[in-house]
Specification:
The chain is mainly alpha-helical. About 80% of the residues lie in helices and about 0% in strands. The chain is built from 16 helices and no strands.
């Protein structure tokens, strides 16, 4: 989107050199910020409601994990193409379109559920929504730098994650109440409405013109674009190691949400409202991590921040299967999500900082494709093992492996990377 130079938000070196206004006073970032917060508020309903729909109909954590795996596989497939698409189209229009498509898809579920449960519909709608969501997520990453400039990426990402997590505190509580009173399908309907509001907000966001565009003859086709993103990751030592380490971490942790819900409802015998409260406590942890990440990274550097966060994730995960009291489950969930948020914000900010603007979509998509490819299988394996052997040994084993990943990271360029 192009417009008069004196009206556009400054990007790149302009922003860094001109001592920009505080983020909360930048109009376009503020509108974008609000849109994402509202979207997460509704999306937290689906995070709880969809597994509950499956669990209420089947009582099986393995079926919950299968739904998570199918949705994850769709995300991986979409990520293969998302970067090339994002780098070729109007990114604002893409984000709006993705929100509108998810509004329609999620809106079908509560309508159909009025006439009775149809589990097959979840296995159709969720993969489609996850695929569309991947296109949105890659586009989302690419526009943040254009809104705030390179020098404030960690701060901006932290603010976005913090307010999204704040919305996530209210969302799970409300989702638990709605699910208990009106059924989980109604909570999915709230999620559909949230995407419509997000799309309306994005209409008013202005994005700066992209810098350093490639000439048309340098972009001959889709497969060249895919190789370009993967090639950049392979040449950058920290991103190369980070992609490999996160592949193992994602394999182990994608099914964690299903595991916590099953533990609370099946092992401990609590209701949907309790599930919502625990998820809200986890979101409080995400807020804490998002607010602290910029300060911690400045003090410790990328490597120590990332490896420390992953190690704490592993310890919290290992403890989740052992504890029997709801407050303890809530505290460990909060610790896990706080550190996931810190590690994720560091990872995303690093990619945004070191990747040229015209490659950002392709590099982001390649990064997510490569490190997330095995995660759906991991979710299926984790939930199958929990149903067969119980949540306690499975959580302990997965948590120990996460700690091992953090230890291995210390001997790679990730662990050796200096403070910024």
């Amino acid at each position: 989107m192009t417009y008069e130079a004196h009206h556009r938000p400054k990007t790149g070196r302009e922003t860094d050199a001109a001592a920009p206004r505080p983020l909360w006073r930048q109009r376009d970032f503020g509108v974008f910020w609000a849109a994402q917060t509202l979207s997460v508020l509704g999306d937290s309903f689906a995070l709880i409601a969809l597994p509950l729909l499956v669990l209420e109909a089947t009582g099986s954590i393995a079926r919950m994990g299968l739904l998570t795996a199918v949705g994850g596989a769709a995300s991986v497939l979409a990520a293969v193409f998302a970067g090339a698409v994002v780098d070729r189209v109007d990114r604002r229009k893409l984000l709006i379109g993705c929100d509108l498509v998810r509004t329609a898809l999620y809106g079908v579920i509560p309508v159909v559920w009025l006439f009775g449960p149809e589990l097959w519909l979840l296995y159709v709608v969720l993969p489609l929504c996850e695929a569309v969501g991947m296109f949105f997520a890659v586009g989302y990453v690419t526009v943040v730098r254009g809104l705030v400039g390179t020098g404030r990426l960690t701060e901006a990402n932290g603010r976005l994650n913090a307010t999204a997590a704040a919305a996530g505190v209210l969302g799970p509580v409300c989702a638990g109440v709605v699910a208990a009173w009106s059924g989980a399908a109604a909570a999915v309907g709230v999620n559909a409405a949230s995407f419509a509001v997000s799309a309306a907000c994005l209409v008013f966001v202005r994005l700066g013109a992209r810098a350093a565009q490639e000439a048309p003859d340098e972009r001959p086709g889709l497969w060249r674009d895919l190789r370009t993103g993967a090639g950049f990751l392979c040449r950058h030592p920290v991103l190369r190691a980070l992609t490999a380490l996160l592949a193992g971490f994602s394999f182990l942790t994608l099914g964690l949400n299903d595991l916590v819900i099953y533990h609370l409802k099946h092992d401990l015998g609590h209701d949907d409202h309790t599930v919502g409260i625990v998820m809200a406590a986890g979101a409080l942890g995400t807020i804490t991590g998002a607010l602290l990440v910029a300060r911690v990274r400045r003090r410790l550097g990328f490597g120590r921040t990332w490896t420390g966060a992953v190690a704490v994730c592993g310890l919290a995960f290992a403890g989740l299967g052992w504890v029997r009291e709801v407050p303890a489950v809530a505290v460990l969930s909060a610790a896990f999500l706080a550190c996931v948020g810190m590690a994720g914000t560091c990872s995303m900010s690093l990619r945004q900082e070191v990747t040229p603007e015209h490659l950002l979509g392709r590099v982001t998509a390649a990064f997510w494709t490569l490190h997330y490819a095995a995660a759906p299988l991991g979710a299926a394996v984790l939930t199958w093992a929990a149903e067969r052997h119980g949540t306690t040994p499975v959580a302990a084993a997965a948590g120990a492996c996460c700690v091992l990943i953090a230890v291995v990271a210390l001997f790679t360029p990730v662990g050796r990377s200096a403070p910024r």
